[in-house]
């Protein structure tokens, strides 16, 4: 029985090796990195961070009222996990990948790797995919453990919701690993790679939105590009940030209205009345509605006659995120390929 | 077919010229010793063959393939022991060799290769814990995977004890008998002399000599080593300058009152007379036939003086 399955595995191994030129590198990469103790420590921290809120709710009854039980899952995801993932996961990705290529370059193991019949392209792709697996495996494991805890807690467990959340989270993690490993390929020293990675992380996490809005202001004030075009540009810029893309995807998934994706995209803006109407009607094909609130008029966005443009839909946002893997790897390949080792 | 061909290869790093127009041909089946002091450009040459660095000018082929454009095809057929490498700390010795076997789509038995180089006992230990010599043997085992047509060994005896170095030479002979071409770089002549058919000497980025070991030895045999012991070291420096200026003399080295002169075989009296004429009394002298070692030292004298 076991020999048969081993034969199957060996066959699969050979098939993958013959099909994908990067496979051998990524397999070595996975074997090597998965044995790092630091990595397992990070995995443990991550699992603890995921489980802690659930465990608190489970054992101490904190924040779970009678009616809260039904909504609890959504609250947990949107209030706790969403921020935790966007802040913490990229840092884990950086720790895991910032030296992936630069360390091999400094130590000289890259010379062993490249004296074998691997092209520099295979090395970049193999490294990116290998490290993706290294983060992906513990992440999926910790999500699974969390799911078990959730089922045991008083919160109503919604498998579809959690499944989708896990999927987006894994995609987000992979995108970050790809970016991190690619940056590593562009630098000669791990220190520089680490610094560049933290700048990129900081920029994506804290500064990108301001930058996107800034571009919008320049378009309107300096170049006279106003109205819908301005907001199209701003929204696209916001969506190419994997961090924002991930947040809006999760918000869309959690939304309860009849057009959750529309609300989620609309929720990426906080503009004045006039701009909000333009964004809702002309950019997102929705129907703006004014509501009188305590703090003045608030414009909300209801589904309009047309549907949300396909390039702002949830699947499109997932594609945006995945494109990053390709962009990062190509830039990295370009710089790495030119370098003298 | 030629195994390696360099054609006017020049490499600059910033404003440092590492290689200054090197032309070199290594025939298939040859064991080629690539000699030169540290910093002469041996590793840069090898790095160009492996496409780790790209030449500033000139071109190179390995086994008939262009080193840059068809690098992968080259690396399918060669085995390399690079200089300044490191192993993967967390992978075992066996996993290292398995990785190469899979990379080359070969069917070698990793254990067999590890036995050949003498690290089979440590096959299942992580390579991070290996000694320098064990790592060197491991990487050699990796280079031997899939019976490569060409072995490129960059300073392969570094980190090996005399026994290990002898084993390395035996392996080179075995591989050569199998039909492989071996390109073997070293800064120690003794390592090369014992196994190589042809020797090239690189100095300051230029190939200063290339001949068969016999050819070089014959050239060396025309030479003589004259060791002169002087009675008084006063005025010795001036005398040495005079001797060095003689056309028959290739090099002079002084060690307090003993002066070693490499010169043409029939120049003994001229040298001794020059010492006397310069006012330095010769107390004793002996002659030896120059060895290849002396020839190598003569070529790379600057380096030897520093050492």
Automatic annotation (TrEMBL), chain A:
Matching Pfam families: ABC2_membrane_2
GO MF annotations in UniProt: ABC-type transporter activity
GO CC field: plasma membrane
Keywords, in A-Z order: Membrane, Transmembrane, Transmembrane helix
Transmembrane segments: 38-60, 80-101, 128-150, 162-183, 190-210, 316-336
Protein known as: ABC transporter permease
Signal peptide: none
UniProtKB/TrEMBL annotation, chain B:
Keywords: ATP-binding, Nucleotide-binding, Transport
The keyword Transport belongs to this UniProt entry's keyword annotation: yes
Top-level division of the source organism's lineage: Archaea
Molecular functions per Gene Ontology: ATP binding; ATP hydrolysis activity
Domain (ABC transporter): residue spans on this chain: 4-229
Family listed: Belongs to the ABC transporter superfamily.
Protein name (database record): ABC transporter ATP-binding protein
